[in-house]
UniProtKB/TrEMBL annotation:
The gene is priA. Keywords: ATP-binding, DNA replication, DNA-binding, Helicase, Hydrolase, Isomerase, Metal-binding, Nucleotide-binding, Primosome, Zinc. It holds the Pfam family PriA_3primeBD. This is Replication restart protein PriA. Zn(2+) 2 binds at residues 522, 525, 540, 543. Residues 287-453 form the Helicase ATP-binding domain. The lineage of its organism: Bacteria, Pseudomonadati, Chlorobiota, Chlorobiia, Chlorobiales. GO terms for cellular component: primosome complex. Residues 549-705 form the Helicase C-terminal domain.
Length: 809
């Protein structure tokens, strides 16, 4: 008898299951293989599992089932290193190994979609290779395939009345007779009807119906050549009227955000690296050549030319016969970076993004697994790319919050990258103009090697930053000061470009009644709702709940409403009034909901089809446009009010990043921040351009209060549809913890209702653990979790443990 250890779906355990291996599979099976196994007591059920070890001789335990087949052509789906990584994730982030494995593998690999079998050309032309076709079973299979060309494994099994054919098929594949692969039904992309002008728009067209006229005007103003009825402020009925009149025509537009490679930029040849770039590259290259694990933090100011250093490093990695991983925060937001890498590496690079369909994802994964592509570039989960022999892992914009996954397993892609590099014996490079304070601390304490690029390339200088105190300055519109207005005007006169940032949409558009003080809040989520003028609706940004809004207080009917801070949409209107001739590009969640929208907006800006780009945080990320000479932040204080100890760090980074979009070539840039509280430390250090001084200041506060990096945080969330259960469970948890931890080395905060006390009808309580001594037994926490969950299983209790939480709302 032969045995193996495996983790299986639906078995939420920390220890692997012991199973027997069918005799015919011995020799095929390797650690990392995806298999089907049948539990002892239910041989008809088959569950997908992942083998971690082949053990022989047997252990004293009773086997819990038998492996009946191997999937994925018998090739392991986990490399020895991604297998180790899954165990590390499970341990560090306090989840189960099977959950970590399921996070590592892309969806199409985990589906029950049966693999299909096809004859190869070789088989059709070269005649039969006697050795391989010798058994009658194989002959039967070939005969069936000759009739039907392509069959799923299941169909073959049914037709032949046999089970577990994989083993045989794998051998036939090896003999070159058939190929096995998964084929997915490609779902038709979702589309929605939009409208565009049938003929080029002509001003003289007189429309008496005011709504139709407004819609025509609105469509003219949009950055896209088409618009959905709600963007045009009309019903589908009115849109059809316009179609009848021959003014509009309907088109189908694909919805869903998708990365588009349509961002086109001609390849820039960089003749030689600057001295600083060369110095940094040399350090990285010698680190790489030494062949051992090391982590570098590349602190290069905005516009210092980090991308080309990554590219030069990767060239060396590939020529040494190794592979590499590049992580970016959100791929749709950085089409420019992705396209630059592609220009250099062509087919050697595989870009991964969440909007690929299953077939594309599956193909991309196989390409990396087989070594046909040597570089994987993508967001967070790309850290799990099935590459072997990884020589370098690059984490661009390493400070970005998007690296943290906000569902189980709650891993941080950046930290996982460092761990994977360690397991691979590879080089890890974390790059940013505003490193996370944790990473900077690690560099200061010599855990990482610090490399700096202190100046911009090509003689460009850092932009100058100025504050506009809003209380003392005249405004030309609700959200724009006279000073900023004049500066924008100056840039337009010189045909330069402007980027305007309005921070965070969740806070923009909030309402307050100046008569009764009412703030409309979502009845499900207990958070303020946001006003959307286009649809005249209030919307909850957590659960999507909407209500109609008539620009008056729902409580006392007063029309005296304060729009606490304006959303990008409202600012766009103000800009239209101030600069009626100017085309304005707006980039926020509303304008980027359709396929390729980010790239489209950025392309337009790149080609100078518009000179003003207005947006949320999206406009702060990595954009590199030489003609941008002015950056304006409309309410620079927003962001400081988030209940989070990292609020200062985050706002500092955001403002520094957005400021860094200005003056990236010969013409110097200027940055204006409209503020309400000019005394804040964030602003004073920003004016001095002193990232490091602000870091030291913030570190003092963190040290005093024992926040990371001085302590490790673990946040435990208790939620239930019954409020008292969530509260009771969290109290019991906190009580049970106390005797096990010594007050010198830990702190338990709470329980308290979470920042957002209710989401989708569930009440949430939080217990926050600060662990200066770093370690708490994961086993202990997990056991408490299980026992509480089973105690309150009838009350719908769920407990989420978040290690190193990034946001505690
Ligand atoms: N040695 C060089 N000579 C001339 N131009 C260069 C050189 N190195 C980089 N550049 C150009 O400088 C610009 C800025 O480079 P890059 O976008 O890599 O900056 P970055 O460090 O990533 O900045 P940010 O952190 O703001 O995104 C790019 O247009 C790039 O092509
Ligand atoms: Zn809601």
């Amino acid at each position: 008898m032969h045995f193996a250890l495996l983790y299986a779906n639906n078995y939420l355990r920390d220890e692997p299951l012991l199973v027997t291996v069918g005799d015919d599979l011995v020799g095929e099976l390797q650690p990392g293989c995806q298999v089907l196994f049948s539990p002892v007591n239910n041989t008809r059920r088959s569950v997908i599992g992942y083998v971690t070890e082949i053990t022989d001789p047997p252990q004293p335990n009773q086997p819990e089932g038998i492996i009946t087949d191997i999937l994925n052509s018998g090739k392991p789906v986990l490399t020895p290193i991604t297998l180790q990584l899954s165990i590390w994730i499970a341990d560090y982030y306090m989840t189960h190994p099977i959950e970590a494995i399921n996070a590592i593998l892309p969806a199409p690999l985990k589906t029950k979609v049966s693999e299909t079998v096809e004859l190869t050309d070789f088989q059709l032309t070269a005649g039969n290779n006697r050795k391989v076709v010798s058994t009658s079973l194989r002959k039967e299979i070939l005969k069936l395939l000759q009739q039907r060309k392509k069959l799923t494994v299941k169909q073959l099994e049914n037709q032949l009345g046999k089970q577990n054919l994989y083993r045989t098929l794998i051998e036939m594949e090896r003999g070159g007779l058939v190929t096995l692969k998964k084929a997915f039904k490609v779902a038709k992309p979702k589309t929605k009807t939009a409208y565009r002008f049938r003929q080029p728009y002509m001003q003289q067209e007189l429309l008496r119906a005011p709504r139709q006229a407004a819609a025509v005007k609105q469509l003219h103003a949009l950055e896209t050549s088409w618009g959905f009825p709600e963007q045009l402020g009309i019903t589908t009925g009115i849109a059809r009227e316009l179609v009848k009149k021959g003014i509009f025509e309907p088109i189908k537009v694909e919805t869903g955000t998708e990365f588009s490679t349509e961002f086109s930029e001609s390849k820039k040849t960089i003749k030689h690296l600057t001295d600083s770039q060369q110095r940094v590259l040399n350090s990285l290259l010698s680190g790489f050549r030494s062949g051992s694990f090391a982590t570098y933090l590349l602190h290069g100011i905005t516009g210092s030319g980090k991308t080309i250093i990554y590219i030069e490093l990767l060239k060396e990695v590939l020529s040494a016969g190794k592979t590499a991983i590049v992580l970016v925060p959100e791929i749709s937001l950085t089409p420019q970076t992705a396209s630059r890498f592609r220009q250099y590496f062509g087919n050697d690079i595989q870009i991964l993004h969440s909007a690929m369909n299953n077939q594309e994802k599956y193909n991309a994964w196989q390409k990396l697994r087989s070594g046909k592509a040597k570089i994987a570039l993508g967001a967070r989960s790309t850290v799990f790319a099935p590459l072997q022999n990884v020589g370098a892992i690059i984490v661009d914009e390493e400070h970005d919050m998007a690296y943290k996954q906000d569902r189980t397993p709650r891993y941080n892609g950046r930290d996982t990258a460092v761990m994977r590099a360690k397991l691979e014996g590879a080089l890890c490079v974390l790059g940013s103009a505003t490193p996370s304070f944790e990473s900077f601390y690690n560099a200061k304490s010599k855990k990482y090697s610090l490399l700096t690029l202190p100046e911009r390339v090509d003689g460009a200088t850092m932009p100058s930053i100025k504050l506009i105190p809003m209380r003392e300055n005249r405004k030309v519109s609700f959200s724009i000061s006279e000073v900023l207005y004049e500066e924008i005007k100056k840039r337009l006169e010189r045909n330069e470009q402007v980027i305007l940032l309005q921070n965070r949409r969740g806070f923009a558009g909030s309402l307050l009644c100046l008569d009764c003080g009412e703030i409309p809040t979502c009845k499900h989520c207990n958070i303020p709702m946001v006003y959307h003028a286009a649809t005249r609706q209030l919307r909850c940004h957590y659960c999507g709940h909407t209500v109609f809004y008539l620009e008056q207080c729902p409580h006392c009917s007063s029309a005296n409403i304060l729009y606490k801070s304006s959303g990008t949409e409202r600012i766009e209107e103000e800009l239209h009034k101030l600069f009626p001739e100017e085309k304005i590009l707006r980039m926020d969640v509303d304008t980027t909901g359709v396929k390729g929208a980010h790239a489209m907006i950025l392309n337009d800006f790149h080609e100078k089809k518009a000179r003003i780009l207005l947006g949320t945080q999206m406009v702060a990320k990595g954009l590199d446009f030489p003609d941008v000479t002015l950056v304006g932040v409309l309410m620079a204080d927003i962001g400081l009010n988030i209940p989070d100890f990292r609020a200062g760090e985050r706002l500092f980074a955001l403002l520094m990043q957005v400021a860094g979009r200005a003056g990236r070539s010969k013409i110097p840039g200027e940055v204006y921040l409209q503020t309400y509280n000019t005394d804040n430390d964030v602003f004073s250090f920003l004016l001095r351009g002193s990232y490091e001084k602000y870091y030291h200041l913030d570190m003092q506060a963190r040290k005093a209060l024992q926040y990371p990096p001085y302590a490790k945080l673990v946040s435990c969330e208790f939620s239930s549809t019954e409020e008292d259960i969530a509260q009771k469970a969290s109290e019991e948890f906190a009580e049970a913890l106390k005797p096990h931890l010594h007050s010198a080395t830990f702190l338990v905060l709470g329980p308290a209702p979470a920042g957002i006390a209710r989401i989708r009808g569930r009440y949430r309580y939080q217990v926050l653990l600060k662990l200066p001594g770093k370690k708490i037994s994961a086993d202990f926490l997990k056991k408490m979790r299980y026992s509480l969950m089973s105690k309150y299983s009838r009350n719908n209790l769920s407990i989420t443990i978040d290690v190193d939480p990034q946001s505690m709302m």
